[in-house]
Amino acid sequence: MGKEEGYLPLFETKRAKGIVLYRIFAASIFAGICLIWFYRVSHIPKAGEDGRFGWIGLLGAELWFGFYWILTQASRWSPVYRHPFKDRLSQRYESELPGVDVFVCTADPTIEPPMMVINTVLSVMAYDYPPEKLSVYLSDDGGSEITYFALLEAAKFAKHWIPYCKKYNVEPRSPAAYFVSSDDAVDADHNQAADLAGIKKLYKDMENEVEDTVKLGRISEEVRSKHKGFSQWDTYSSRRDHDTILQIVIDGRDLNATDVEGCVLPTLVYLAREKRPQYHHNFKAGAMNALIRVSSNISNGQVLLNVDCDMYSNNSQAVRDALCFLMDEAEGNEIAYVQFPQNFENVTKNDLYSNSLRVISEVEFHGLDGYGGPLYIGSGCFHRRDTLCGRKFIKGCKSEMKWEISRKREETGIHELEENSRSLASCAFEENTEWGKEMGLKYGCPVEDVITGISIQCHGWKSVYCNPTRKAFLGIATTTLSQTLVQHKRWSEGDFQILLSKYSPAWYAHGNISLGLQLGYCCYCFWASNSLATLFYSSIPSLYLLRGVSLFPQVSSPWLIPFAYVIIAKYTWSFVEFLWSGGTILGWWNDQRIWLYKRTSSYLFAFIDTILNSLGHSDSAFVITAKVSDEDVSHRYEKEVMEFGASSPMFTILATLALLNLFCFLGVVKEAIMGEGMTKLYVTMPLQILLCGVLILINLPLYQALYLRKDKGKMPSSIAFKSMAFSVFACICFKYLY
Ligand SMILES: O=c1ccn([C@@H]2O[C@H](COP(=O)(O)OP(=O)(O)O[C@H]3O[C@H](CO)[C@@H](O)[C@H](O)[C@H]3O)[C@@H](O)[C@H]2O)c(=O)[nH]1
Ligand SMILES: [Mn+2]
Known about the structure:
With about 750 residues, the protein is an alpha/beta fold. It folds into 2 domains: about 20-75 and about 510-735, no CATH class; about 95-340 and about 375-475, Alpha-Beta Complex (Spore Coat Polysaccharide Biosynthesis Protein SpsA, Chain A). It is about 50% helix and about 10% strand. It has 27 helices and 13 strands. Strands 5-6-4-3-7-11-9-12 form an 8-stranded mixed beta sheet, sandwiched between helices. α4 links the parallel β3 and β4 (about 135-140). The termini are far apart. Uridine-5'-diphosphate-glucose binds near residues 283 and 624.
């Protein structure tokens, strides 16, 4: 082992400081929660008394929240921070670095524009890594000729782009992103300025070619005749029904395939796996498994990196960062994958839709890393090939991560290689095999990544969370509320399915992974079930205001203290954490709003769908997240104006809840003016009024969208009408009938 041989480790792990103080603080919150539980249980109204139903419901909700809060502590209890030493890696292993295969996934040329896709491809082709050991595969589930055409153009451009990047050591290496940032770089010397202008022009030419083809919507005959690769579309009938299309666009073994400086280029492969209507294609998991097999035949890199087509590499050193973990002599043998955080290029200052998932990336994943490693969350993850293919962990068993050249492959001609790779991507290939079960990514779950990750960890492997200051990947976050809610529905539904599946962190994982990690997983897997308690809490106490029934301690009661303490302590901490993770004050407020919206809509739908699903009623699909939006929408997004302009049943729920709280509050105000007086109400129901008031404040943008806005992002009038009817109905029923 490394240490015995006197090697310095390739990475170090630091524990967080001041953790004891945090634990004492958390324990005090827990004490407060216990007091709240005690108060609820010991003060239940008697049968027949008004408020009994609400009280018991609140007891259930508070038990749930308390339990969930405990889960969230697992990811804060013992965080660690990792620091790779890349200089040691290159000193020791530069000539033996393993092959790395990068998989870029795309699925739809309209939702995921070809220019965006090739920018991502170019960014990973330009990694600071020996090009003969780097191979890039583009998986196109859209089976689009236009995307293929764009890739051909990218291959030409790469011959100029890669040497440019290396010469001036530029970052980021996605040309589009680089040109935006280089616009204000003034320190470029004279030579570089000329080169920059040249490369920009080449990029523009390529962009024009691609955009013209996109506009045309098909490949012109002239272009088609130039590349024999297009003939593969001759038998193509639709994106759901076609043969495997596979083309080695750049063959890294070919000594003539060089850039303008004469250096070899990384291998570049286009793959659209076979699709047939009678075979389920299993979405991204299916694409990834086809890529694993095809790449094993072509380049067989020992390390695999997957990025989504919008997640370009922002840090050309990231491969080396990851290898420091996988190749460490002492601990590397236990590490199956290295996950980087997912960051986004287009998040606005106050992160309107809370897309940056700040606290998860900056706090929680470091916490999970302390217990055996983060979840596998898809894009931005480096895997060992063999573990992803199902190799079990055996203590003390080393797998060499060294570069090896396969003689057999070297001698196979490119056409033969293409031909025998094609069958690996056919639909029938997986029949009666372990693919999708024990091999590759797992099928049948909308979050193929998380379920695959937990099964790897249950096999005894560790994972590592690597979060360098210069972000490794930048993607595109959703820019409308409904997209955010739909995406979270998919995630929470997938995670909830995992909880009920045979890989459940609650039972299957027990004994296979640490308790802390089990709790950490549960935190995400229980997202969906949060909806019920949150719905109850955000509506019933307010409705009881209308009846003048108090469900919380009065001002004079000492029981108010634990409530006040838990609320203040918990929210202060959440605020501190948010700022510490790089957020803004308004960002935190937005985060609270999205927290509420997700829980009362996405999670609720996910919960219901999962239950229906397990009863065999519906099947969950993979709704691809939009990566482009029209100008109007982007403009509002940049101005941080919430987008409600879609007719989504999720919005009906949100609007109903918002109006319901407004009416309840107005009811209280009326009561205060005409009846008992403000002070009396305030003394008997302080927390209930506070809760209702905060819900109204948080919903201010929603009221605006319902009644004040005129732009296209306002709430559709059908929803305004429905939600008004539902909330008035609920208030009347509750006040007079119940
Ligand atoms: O049939 C499909 C559907 C999707 N994709 C690709 O999968 C990726 C992720 O899809 P996206 O719509 O962007 O989903 P997100 O919710 O943004 O993705 C997050 O969540 C997914 C799991 O739900 C992970 O796989 C991703 O890596 C992670 O970024 C994209 O590159 C798609 O092109 C396919 O290749 N085939
Ligand atoms: Mn995405």
